[in-house]
């Protein structure tokens, strides 16, 4: 094989290889994009499940297993940080928010002013009083 035929042979085969690589790249781009989207959705869904689990289990781990949850709207505030919560069923619950209560007075006043939904985690205290542990 002389030099001319060798160069033509290389041009034909390399050109063929390059065209094959281009078509292979085009045909393999969709699975790569689909895999990237799948991985992003998988990571996002696992993150949401973990955040939800922490939100549900967090107060119980922090305050113990005898913590009860109530939600509604604050209808009365005072003296101090003690407050009355009206639940969705119309029941009025009176909470004692003492030193161990994790709530700021300003935040509770805003909830009262705006009639905002309020979550309360509490324990049963002495004399059937409800001692708030966390108000948000």
Question: Could you give a quick summary of the protein structure above?
Answer:
By secondary structure, the protein is α+β, with helices and mostly antiparallel strands. The protein has helices spanning about 5-65, 105-115, and strands at about 70-75, 85, 90-95, 115-125, 130-135.
Describe this structure in words.
The chain is an alpha+beta fold. It folds into 2 domains: 1-64; 66-135, Nucleic acid-binding proteins (OB fold (Dihydrolipoamide Acetyltransferase, E2P), Beta Barrel), CATH 2.40.50. The protein has 2 helices and 5 strands, in the order αβββαββ. The radius of gyration is 32 Å and the shape is elongated. The mean pLDDT is 81.
Main β sheet profile: 5 strands, mixed, barrel
- Overall geometry comes to elongated
What does the average pLDDT come to? 81
Number of strands: 5
Low-confidence stretches: none
End-to-end Cα distance, whole Å, is 86 Å
CATH architecture grouping of the largest domain: Beta Barrel
The CATH superfamily label of the largest domain reads Nucleic acid-binding proteins
Name the helicity range: 40-55%
- Estimate nothing, just give the exact number of structural domains: 2
Order of helices and strands: HEEEHEE
**Alpha-beta content class:** alpha+beta
* CATH-assigned fold name of the largest domain: OB fold (Dihydrolipoamide Acetyltransferase, E2P)
Helix count?
2
Major sheet: arrangement of strands: 1-2-3-5-4
Rg over CA atoms: 32 Å
Q: Supply the CATH class of the largest domain.
A: Mainly Beta
Strand content: 25-35%
């Amino acid at each position: 094989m002389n030099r001319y035929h060798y160069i033509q042979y290389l041009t034909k085969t390399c050109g063929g290889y390059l065209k094959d690589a281009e078509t292979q790249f085009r045909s393999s781009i969709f699975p790569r994009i689909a895999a990237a989207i799948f991985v992003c959705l998988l990571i996002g869904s696992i993150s949401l499940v973990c955040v939800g689990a922490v939100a549900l289990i967090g107060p119980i781990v922090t305050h113990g297993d005898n913590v009860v949850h109530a939600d509604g709207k604050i209808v009365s505030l005072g003296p101090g940080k003690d407050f009355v919560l009206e639940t969705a069923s119309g029941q009025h619950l009176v909470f004692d928010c003492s030193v161990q209560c994790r709530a700021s007075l300003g935040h509770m006043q805003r909830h009262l002013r705006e009639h905002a939904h309020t979550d309360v985690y509490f324990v049963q205290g002495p004399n059937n009083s409800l001692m708030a542990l966390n108000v948000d």
